[in-house]
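Table 4 source record.
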Amino acid sequence: MSVRKAIDNEKEFTIVAGVNGAGKSTFIEWYTSDENRFGHVIDADKLAREHGSLIAGGRKALEEINFCIENGINFCQETTLSGNQIIRTIKKAKAHGFRVEVIYLGLDTVEEHIARVAKRVSEGGHDIPEDVIRRRFASRFDSLCRILPLCDGGTLGRFEDSFDFVALYFGGKLYDFNLNDRRWIKEFYPYYIENGGEMWGSSDRNE
């Protein structure tokens, strides 16, 4: 699967993406618990707490991203995919010879995202306004479709206590493992195809 350590001598930029509450930080902690597979991890939320504001944290994150790209350092960025900065980062990384991989974590309903964020807050974590979560959930498929064609590979799934992967992106197409009935991925496929996406071995999926 695409969740892997970078090939020797190959620079890699890994994007861990998903709506707030998808489990991005927890996934990174879980996946790197025994080995640093991602290189330098850039967490804008953590940087915002360390530097006192979202603006200061965002500036520090961008500074670290540029440093990694310009010095050929493997790095990983957490993102909700909102805004256009992630697209600029992907294009800059690729222009500097990086392989770009996306790991997208999805949940079936917006209520799951809201509940996870509320749980995080109850445990001392940072909050995200509910209207922001709902807006990002509503645009999640569009956000993912915008970046997939720019990536060299990708893994789509869900993270709870372990990673439940449902699809791979390689060669410019998605491959469905059909291992489970995750609602979100079943809803994503038609949207992806309607917006020009292609599936491996499934040209007649909707026929």
